[in-house]
Amino acid sequence: MAYTTIDDPSAHFQTVLYTGNASDGHAITFDGNSDLQPDWVWIKPRSFAGWHVSTDTSRGLTKNVYPNDTYQEETNTTRIQSMNSDGFTINNDADTINKSSQTIVAWAWKANGGTRTTNTESGDNPAGGYQANTTAGFSIVDWTGTGGAGGLMAHGLGAVPHTIITKTRSHANSWAVYHHRNTAAPETDYLKLDSTAATLDNVNRWNDTVPTSTNLVFGDVGGVNGNDQTQIAYVFTEKQGYSKFGSYTGNGNADGPFIYLGFKPAWAVFKNTTSGHSWRILDNRRNTHNSNNTDLRPDVPDAESSSSDMDFLSNGIKMRDTDGDLNEDGSNHVYMAFAEHPFVSSKGIPTTAR
């Protein structure tokens, strides 16, 4: 079997940097090897403190939720105007994603062009839909909660999800994150994307049940399945040479752990699950050379800072930071990572380091 089925990760995920101009019709074009029409775009101001903004083609481009806050979904016509064949166009949101002369980053994933497979409510199983990119192991799932324990919602991936990031749209609830390496029994625990909190023990979030290759499984609580509450989730399963959702134990040393990914990373997010620390996002566009030390934090609206320290390598990540967010001695740290290039292509060609 080939080492990877995705020789060009830019066909499924890209990072783009741009400068705001406070004008309608500001076209943002990706510069990866492949064209990418995105379905989920996560935007964050870099040079000033501004909220993270999440938009996707399942909910519609005027619908925004905010990773750093519990705030419910907001309708805003001044932000994303369109998803394009190789990028997206924004409007005159002069305060956040298009502030004049300010630097901004966007991370974008491809699902299924906004085309959803839908289902109706049946007992405790909610009504909703999904759009899935099975090649890249990513789907966007939406549903209306039933308040019933054990509700099932199809995700369309055809494989067991490793990470689920979900947000209540209709109410001000925290983001709930399932990660398969969070604890020894991840189905009983969850993380909050909008918080520095360590992992939280709650069997009701995922109904004490690991997701299956077909369905997400929900408990009877608000935040994932409150009765008549609308929800959105971004769901991932690992693809060799393209994505990895794992964990490591920190050693508190500048000669930190090496995290084998099987690819040269383009983007990674980290969270200390043992104690209360911020999430950290790093990518290969804001730092083009090692060390990679320019991060953003999903749990706060702060501007970009240079406080982390790690190397992006041809086959993984080397931690070079003693900070508790990334390398606390003895603590469990989880991560999500996506590739710039597989370590070895399907034709057996290895990639080089930075």
Describe this structure in words.
It is a single chain. With 354 residues, this protein is mainly beta. It is 1% helix and 37% strand. The chain is built from 1 helix and 26 strands. It has an 8-stranded antiparallel beta sheet with strand order 10-11-12-19-14-15-16-17, with no helix packed on it. The model has no long low-confidence stretch (mean pLDDT 95).
Notable features of this structure?
globular; four-stranded antiparallel beta sheet; 37% strand; 354 residues
| Biggest sheet strand line-up | 10-11-12-19-14-15-16-17
What oligomeric state is this?
Answer: single chain
Radius of gyration: 19 Å
**Number of helical runs?**
1
Q: How would a textbook summarize the main sheet?
A: 8 strands, antiparallel
Give the termini distance in whole angstroms.
Answer: 27 Å
**Unreliable residue stretches:** none
Say how many strands there are. Answer: 26
Helix content: under 10%
C-alpha geometry: globular
What is the strand content? 35-45%
Let me know the average pLDDT. 95
Which class of secondary structure composition applies to the elements? mainly beta
Order of helices and strands: EEEEEEEEEEEEEEEEEEEEEEEEEHE
In short:
With 354 residues, the chain is mainly beta. The chain has one helix at residues 324-327, and strands at 13-19, 26-29, 40-45, 53-56, 63-64, 74-75, 80-84, 87-90, 103-109, 117-119, 127-133, 138-144, 151-154, 163-168, 176-179, 189-192, 200-201, 215-218, 230-236, 243-249, 258-260, 263-272, 280-283, 310-312, 316-319, 332-342.
